[in-house]
Amino acid sequence: MKKKLSTEPYKGVRDFYPEDQFIQNYIFDVWRAVVESFGYEEYNASILEPTELYASKTNEEIVNEQTYTFTDRGDRSVTLRPEMTPTVARMVAQKYRDLSFPLRWYSIANFFRYERPQRGRLREHWQLNADIFGVRAIDADVEIIRIAQEIMRTFGATEKDFVVKINNRGALLAHLIKKGMSQVEAEQELSRMDKGMSKMSDTPKAKEIDTLLSLLKDKGIKNVKYAPDLVRGFSYYTGIVFEVFDTDEKNTRSLFGGGRYDGLGEKFNTIKESFPAIGFGMGDVRIRDFLEVHKLLPEYSSLTDLYLCVVDQNYKDIAESLADYLRKEGLNVSLDMSEKKIGEQVKTASRKKVPFVVCVGKEEHDSKMFTIKELKTGKETKLKKNEITAFLTKMANAVS
Ligand code: HAM
């Protein structure tokens, strides 16, 4: 006999059962609503990128140890994207002459990193990326941090629940070079700082930090703090970097982060002088954990408005035509095809959290009246076919 297969997903990735997908969609909906309210346009790209896109002097850890890289049948080295920033910079550079700057762009996409899986760190995660291209002024930094705040607020978090830590990576780098290090040495030192393996005793505070803090304060945002040790792991950051943390001491890992990367465009053959860019990446894994710990997750509810149960298989076509009629009117209708006892069918609807059921049989066929039962309350209402949609719409509005 052949060995039977395991049902476990691949190490460090997740299956999304309907309840998980419900949460995932909720997170994506909040992300989308907030960034679109600030005028961001959605873009996307393939998961596959040529490996050379990620090669750089100091990013070797990510490229050599954390990427999924393989050689395709045409002998090209291919990488599953570990982040969006190089891709979006490539896209902006490719159409540089045709695009109308400033750009406000966002995407919601999945990424792969070969990590040791642990809480908050998996091998596949999803990120919202929101970035502004073409603005050198600090207004862009202000907007990006405001959006980060607005997303947290929309999830139901208050200013007490999280803090935004900011620093200027460019200023740290310049400081180390001024002290005598070469560019490469200075970047390696920042990379050690990022891993907590090194500390700088005389970190310079960039002038820009106070300006940014006061501009944010003007917008009513007070939970932003200067963090002299904050570096962030990517060498492409040239200015402000920020990271958002849970204020709960038990949850020390950062929730999400980003920064300014005014030089990344230079690597592309279409670009002579680089373009300014700033943005952030917000992951689904840590935000979900945060929402769970802070009891901010929404309760699961079904998208199906009505579940039709069949009392007598001889009248199945009545149920089917009722379903089609109501779908045309805009309702989401599911029809039971199990041929089980009626009590079992209603139980199925209840387990799936469908709010209303109608049982269809001879009585409904003869009287042309349908009894709608609300499963939560047990309340029953007798209606004609053409009254059902208005009734359910009224009930749905009364709830929300
Ligand atoms: P990052 O800090 O590497 O930045 O990732 C952004 C966020 O993605 C993290 O803060 C975290 O929420 C989530 N994340 C990253 N890796 C994992 C993982 N292995 N498991 C679970 N969640 C993870 C970037 O990727 C930058 N490209 C962001 C950016 C956009 N900077 C400017 N624009």
Q: What's the short version?
A:
With about 400 residues, the protein is of the alpha+beta class. It has helices at about 20-35, 60-65, 85-95, 140-155, 170-180, 185-195, 205-220, 285-295, 315-330, 340-350, 360-365, 390-400; strands spanning about 40, 50, 70, 75-80, 105-110, 125-135, 160-170, 225, 240-245, 255-260, 275-285, 305-310, 335, 355-360, 370-375, 380-385. The protein is elongated and about 90 Å long.
Give keywords:
400 residues, alpha+beta, eight-stranded mixed beta sheet, five-stranded mixed beta sheet, elongated, binds histidyl-adenosine monophosphate
Please describe what this structure looks like.
With 400 residues, this protein is of the alpha+beta class. The chain is 34% helix and 22% strand. The protein is built from twelve helices and 16 strands. It has helices spanning 18-37, 60-65, 85-94, 138-154, 169-178, 183-194, 207-218, 284-293, 316-328, 342-351, 362-367, 388-399; strands spanning 41-42, 48-50, 68-71, 77-80, 103-112, 124-133, 162-168, 224-226, 240-246, 256-260, 277-283, 306-310, 333-335, 356-360, 369-374, 380-384. The chain starts with 17 loop residues before the first helix and ends with a helix. The chain binds histidyl-adenosine monophosphate (HAM). Residues 83-85, 113, 115, 121-122, 125, 127, 129, 131, 254-259, 279-283, 285-286 line the site of histidyl-adenosine monophosphate.
How many separate helices? 12
Q: Which geometry do the CA atoms define?
A: elongated
User: What's the order of the H and E elements?
Assistant: HEEHEEHEEHEHHHEEEEHEHEHEHEEH
In spatial order, strands of the major sheet run: 1-5-6-11-10-9-7-8
**Uncertain regions spanning at least 5 consecutive residues:** none
**C-alpha termini separation:** 55 Å
- Category from helices, strands and their pairing: alpha+beta
Beta-strand content bin: 15-25%
Query: Which hetero compounds are present in the coordinates?
Result: histidyl-adenosine monophosphate
